[in-house]
Amino acid sequence: MSLRSHDDEPRRPVGRAIGFARRIEDAFLTFVREHSLTLLRYALVTVFVWFGLLTTSGVNGIAGLIADVLWVLPSGSVDLLLGGWEIAIGLALLSRRTTRLAVVLAAAYVAVIMLPLVVSPEATFTQFPYGPSFEGVYILKDWVLLGGVMTVGGLLEE
User: What is the reported pLDDT for 40?
Assistant: First the structure.
């Protein structure tokens, strides 16, 4: 007579599957812990340099809004200024030595980019305060990018 009940037999494959799933999860989480910060860093580099190049070439949905807010600057220079600023942030993220500079540049950049939300809400919202326009969404995404830059800068090991 066996000490096992007949109910134990179907549980073995399930137990093995759960063990296998846990090993996969552990391997994935180890990969995430070891590489996520690097992946985030290079994703941010790509986004900032790419958007910066688009901005310097005049393909930016909010440069006109920023030019209206920063009326003291010649309108043609706003694209170059914003695009160069984005490229500088991206390039500063490439090196661990300049990552903290990237955080400062990104914080200042986002402060400038957010100005139209306050100064021109009619241009950045279809229904204030919860319905951003296309330009408003474009501006708000910079908060997410700033959060990513701050995460990379804040988790640097000395």
Answer: 95
Structural domain contains residue 75 = yes
103 part of a folded domain: yes
Is there a domain that residue 3 lies in? no
Q: What is the mean pLDDT, run by run of 10 residues, along the chain of 158 residues?
A: 50 81 93 93 96 87 78 80 95 94 95 89 86 88 92 82
What pLDDT score was predicted for residue 59? 80
Q: Is residue 86 part of a domain?
A: yes
**Three-class HEC string of the chain:** CCCCCCCHHHHHHHHHHHHHHHHHHHHHHHHHHHHHHHHHHHHHHHHHHHHHHHHHCCCCCCHHHHHHHCCCCCHHHHHHHHHHHHHHHHHHHHCHHHHHHHHHHHHHHHHHHCHHHHHCHHHHEEECCCEECHHHHHHHHHHHHHHHHHHHHHCCCC
Range of the domain at 83: 37-154
